């Protein structure tokens, strides 16, 4: 396995290689928006970030910031060794459905208790997600839900060859 070489962060940047494992939960204060089908389906100035080594932050929003009808329960679940069992949602706008594009931890582990019922979104499955006005880039690979912004440096898990990181 080729070991990743962390990019050197510039002023005001964070390296995902300085994030801990196991991951850390921190409160986020700033603007977050999610657009689907040409409409804004969520907007918040409060949320949480999960920070884990080699991953861009995954943002979680209060369920109450999604417009009515935007969250539709979806079949299936998954397990996270740190947070517990996840449940999924389809994201719905007037003209668009993004299947299983959002998830929550209804009863997370003790270290992630503030996330109970909060919603995370796969940025690649929607039109646009923003953090503090910046359009995010989805974490590569299609499996993880991190959001890349200009203030985080990688390389990021999900790129080819990163399976063993």
Automatic annotation (TrEMBL):
Entries under Gene3D superfamilies matching the protein: Domain of unknown function (DUF427) (2.170.150.40)
Protein's name in the database: DUF427 domain-containing protein
- What segment(s) does the record annotate as region Disordered? 1-20
In terms of InterPro entries, this protein maps to: DUF427, DUF427_sf
- The UniProt entry's coiled-coil ranges are none
**Which Pfam families would you find in this protein's record?**
NTP_transf_9
Where in the numbering of this chain does the DUF427 domain appear?
33-123
